[in-house]
């Protein structure tokens, strides 16, 4: 496996844990949408710079370069879903 895959798993775990902390906020979805927008913008800018600097670019190279951001987006989406389904109950127990 590629080192980019292991790096992507680490990014996923870090964003996933941070997403659990953000879910304790009442308007958690704003921060998670901001994270998704950041990762998406980073993929676009990073890919554009790489394509401009490299004469021959393969899809595999672009995919491996964008994999950490894609894993970050998926962690944001998963924690956002948990924030809508699981965390309302936890928020009510923490703040009576």
Give the ordered list of helices and strands: HHHH
pLDDT < 50 runs, ≥5 residues? none
Number of helices in the DSSP assignment: 4
Radius of gyration, in Å, reads 16 Å
Give the overall pLDDT as a whole number: 89
Counting DSSP E segments of at least 2 residues, the number of strands comes to 0
What distance separates the N and C termini? 48 Å
Structural class by secondary-structure content: mainly alpha
Indicate the proportion of strand residues. Answer: under 5%
Biggest sheet character: none
Overall geometric form: elongated
Fraction of residues in helix: over 70%
Structure, explained:
The chain contains four helices and no strands. The chain is mainly α and 96 residues long. Helix 1 packs parallel to helix 3 and helix 2 runs antiparallel to helix 3.
Write the layout of secondary structure elements.
Layout (H helix, E strand, L loop, with lengths): L2 H20 L5 H26 L5 H27 L1 H8 L2
Helix pairs in contact: 1-3, 2-3
Brief summary:
By secondary structure, this protein is mainly α. The protein has four helices and no strands.
């Amino acid at each position: 496996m590629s080192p980019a895959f292991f790096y992507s798993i680490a990014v996923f775990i870090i964003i996933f844990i941070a997403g659990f902390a953000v879910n304790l906020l009442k308007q958690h979805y704003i921060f998670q949408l901001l994270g998704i927008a950041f990762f998406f913008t980073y993929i676009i800018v990073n890919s554009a710079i790489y394509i401009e600097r490299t004469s021959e670019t393969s899809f595999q190279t672009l995919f491996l370069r964008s994999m950490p951001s894609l894993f970050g987006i998926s962690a944001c989406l998963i924690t956002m879903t948990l924030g809508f389904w699981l965390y309302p109950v936890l928020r009510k127990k923490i703040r009576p």
